[in-house]
Write a structure and sequence with these properties.
Layout (H helix, E strand, L loop, with lengths): L4 H14 L8 E2 L2 H7 L4 H13 L3 E4 L3 E4 L7 E2 L6 H8 L3 E11 L3 H7 L7 E10 L2 E11 L8 H5 L2 H7 L5 E12 L2 H6 L7 E11 L4 E10 L5 E2 L7
Parallel strand pairs: 4-11
Antiparallel strand pairs: 1-3, 2-3, 5-6, 6-7, 7-10, 8-9, 9-10
Helix pairs in contact: 1-3, 2-3
Protein name: Trehalose operon repressor
InterPro entries: Bact_HTH_transcr_reg, Chorismate_lyase_/UTRA_dom_sf, TreR, Tscrpt_reg_HTH_GntR, UTRA, WH-like_DNA-bd_sf, WH_DNA-bd_sf
Keywords: DNA-binding, Transcription, Transcription regulation
């Protein structure tokens, strides 16, 4: 699987920080130097540095450069809005996706309420389990409003829905409201996940919006309790 150049640069520098080849307070190479080092464009380097800053690896300081921060290795960022494929490309874990249910359906009363639609508006319903290091530990239940996502296939769902929506449909995915709760495991969790005896599961509920502020997706991402540490890196905006 081909990885974007900026993701590859991000992973290499992040690994140097995680392995303490680069330590707190170190100044990493300038954008110009990294452009030469990686034989790429300045825009690609800037995207990699922005990703490092967003994930708490570095702090950009005007006139000084990018300074390495003191941090623990992050496992699963709460505030980020990235696809499963993008996230685990960055982390470098061995993963796979299995689509268990897929189709265009009439929304239930519950989904109508979450997506703020009527029963006349169809939705894509996608149920996928995520296998990480040999175990199925995430179950994603996605609902997309058909009026925004006109076409979807099982093959797209096995790869990256966000990549398809942004690249093929040309839609801009902008922001999300998130809610994290702990719930008892359901029959579906037991059917599709390797629960290893756990009776509760961490559920991240996402309400995702396009650039024009249209709500187009509701997701329940259900995680096995022992496999994830949900973390955030916060910056104060003045």
């Amino acid at each position: 699987m081909k990885v974007n150049k900026y993701v590859w640069i991000y992973k290499e520098i992040a690994e140097q920080i995680d392995q303490r080849i680069l330590n707190e307070g170190d100044i990493i190479s300038s954008e110009n130097d990294l452009t030469v080092q990686y034989e790429t464009s300045r825009e690609t380097v800037r995207k990699a540095l922005n990703m490092l800053a967003q994930n708490g690896y570095i702090q950009k300081i005007k006139g000084k450069g990018s300074v390495v921060l003191n941090r623990e290795k992050m496992r699963f960022p709460v505030s980020g809005l990235v696809s499963f494929k993008e996230l685990f490309e960055m982390i470098g874990k061995e993963t796979s996706t299995t689509v268990h249910e897929f189709g265009l359906v009439s929304p239930s009363d519950f989904i109508q309420k979450q997506l703020r639609i009527t029963e006349d508006e169809d939705v894509w319903r996608v149920v996928r389990s995520r296998k990480i290091d040999g175990e199925h530990v995430i179950l994603d239940k996605d609902y997309f409003i058909h009026g925004h996502v006109s076409r979807l296939t099982k093959e797209i769902c096995e790869d990256s829905i966000y990549q398809y929506i942004e690249g093929e449909l040309g839609l801009g995915i902008s922001y999300a409201h998130k809610e994290i709760v702990v719930e008892p495991c359901t029959e579906m969790d037991q059917k599709y996940l390797d629960l290893n005896g756990y009776e509760h599961i961490v559920v991240v509920k996402n309400f995702v919006f396009l650039d024009d502020t249209s709500l187009f997706q509701y997701t329940e991402s259900r995680h096995r309790l022992d496999k994830f540490r949900f973390v955030d890196f916060a910056r104060r905006v003045k």
